[in-house]
Amino acid sequence: MTFRTRFAPSPTGPLHLGHAYSAILAHDMAHAAGGAFLLRIEDIDRDRARPEWEDQIYEDLAWLGLDWERPVWRQSDHTERYAAALDDLWQAGLLYPCTCNRRDILAAASAPQDGSAPLTGPDGLLYPGTCRDKPGPRPGQDPRPEGVALRLNMAVAVRRALHTGRAAHLTFQETGHGPDGQHGQIAFPPEDLTVLAGDIVLSRKDFIGSYHLAVVLDDAAQAITHVVRGEDLFDATAIHALLQRLLDLPTPVYHHHRLIRDDQGRRLAKRDDARAIRTYRDEGATPQDIRTKVGL
Ligand code: GLU
Ligand code: ZN
Where is the composition biased (Basic and acidic residues) (predicted)? Predict the structure, then answer.
């Protein structure tokens, strides 16, 4: 297997030390394996993505000494692929429209009298299923609804995944580690996802697609063999393995890595300008200083 990996930032803020670690690690692994390092700009959320952040991504990565294959894959250039996959999933009866806002979901998820905290998954609050059985457009009769969020009916998706003729478990190979040290061959029954992830959003009200949908389609379209990314996405990988089976896409090898934290042990965030690569550059740091700072 040739080694093809990617770094996939969203241009919604400055790259910080955590991004630098992820990008350098993926780049170095690709070079060590004689493989390819690709860059993907995850900009489907047109309200939050900014061209100036995209430009700064290229500048920062080049300054770090990284090189990547051209042309760069920009998600906003590929929305027709996301639409086509959504059409297929819609016609297969796997999606339903959802009109809930965050407040509706919070209210419905916290409704039970027992006072226990609402369940959460990789996307935050677990969707309580409010819109699942509402009357509305139907696959087979109606085209995929537009201008509304579409959720994956997880119970149906799990049944479908179990009837593809492939193994009853979803699996992926982990060459790094999950947050609890998970590594090696990871196997789990798809039904776990009804509790762990619930009916996730695969298309947003204001733009086509969602992170989970776009990432599996793009990893396949870019022929990615190894996904190198932070361990915070380990749980999301279960969702990705399910979508890969439903969409008949290959599952790459995953290499989740440790997260870079600040002095208080908190994860770095986009707004954490103090840790922005740009700030270190302006203060006269060298690319080697950045490698040292992140422990490479
Ligand atoms: N745009 C995502 C992020 O920055 C990419 C995650 C991934 O590598 O799958 O978190
Ligand atoms: Zn809803």
Answer: 131-145
